[in-house]
Fold:
Amino acid sequence: MSEREALAFSREEMREFGYQVIDQLIDYYDGRDERRVTGELDHDALEAILREPLPHAGQPWPEVLEQFQAQVVAPTNHVDHPRFFAYIPLANNFVGVMADALAAGYNIFNAVWLQGAGAAQVERLTVDWLRRIFGFPPEAGGTFVSGGSMANLTALAVARQSRLRGEMRGAVAYCSDQIHFAISRGLRVLGFTPDQLRKIPSDESFRLSLPRLRQAIAEDRAAGRRPFCVIATAGTTNTGAVDPLETLADFCRGEDLWLHVDGAYGAPAMLTARGRRALAGLQRADSLALDAHKWLFQPIECGVVIVRQRRWLTETFIEQPEYLKDVEQSDDELNFMYQGVQLTRQFRALKLWMSFKVFGLDAISRAIESGFHNAELAETLLRQAGCWEIVTPAQMAIVTFRYQPANGDEALANRVTHDLVGRLLEDGFAFASGTQLRGKTVLRMCCNNPRTTTEDLEQTVALLGRLAAELAEM
Structure:
């Protein structure tokens, strides 16, 4: 059988292919700041991709690599660019990229301790590091998953098992109207109906209102329903607002309710002094979801779920088919297939473990702190420009704002603010996204990329002003 028939390359071919890929990545990282932020879309070319026939015969790998650059990289928005401020930027790091290559190259199966004891120990250690960062007790446990959506779903499955024991009728969960849609989708996947999630109107700071929450729970109990879970957010996507975690923890303890915190992007701020102040009470949650590919600067995918008692994960997910009877679960030999939904699972923890060890937590803390600073600087620059209304001030690396015409024309303000997103996409120098806050169309800048410079922010705010002036004249 030839090497191609065995789906193999010679040593020389592997070296040539691998070095070519590494060189492309280094060129990308080295020149990223000078590139467009947004991709250049050719809709005809994108449609042509879908018409490509099945490749029954192979082709030389350099041609395929060229296709990748033309068909995938060229039209892609670069979410790790220092002037990408939309959504939650995903500023990864090269150590994490290489760790992903190692995990894939060695094809590490990190589900059964017997098959990958070293990988299991590294994941367990990395979860324990996170446990300590977030202030969870020693008996806490967790697992790496694809991202915040799966982390939230996993935590809510544990809450369902722990509090409802399979009896979901009449059960109700509660959150603010600023919650991420992953929560409602996750509950739906778990079998809850839409009316089993009550979204409480947020307060003037876009945080979960405790008086309104208390009233809703009292009403539901009076109606014979079964409140079981409160879902708080540690940094909302819209504004960066942090729900009153300490107060909610007191309330949930008094009402015997599960407290889950969606800290998908905000939780890593616990590595900074001001983050610890903003997130006070996070350590009292029953469960926590976070995305390490957001404010811990890892390549996609890298989510984590942590629960207050590790045994809760096993109680929720353990199954033991006949072909795995020889796989034992013990405190010393942890099988991650019993800690979540997946059996076959990649070694996601490796990139965070390597990043922590290579850079150190002090450097990562400073990188997170830069997000706070840059959002505050962006707010200052926007105020100085004189044509912007700050809707919510900088918090957790996010600031929201809208165009403010001199004549106070509300319709014009909404139109210009809305149309700016499209103009930024066309221009390509920088990108910010829009959202709606109580009927107002606003722009938001998330400044969590540690490679964003003062010049990047100054040039972006200047560009926003020029584009807004052009749109206002149209």
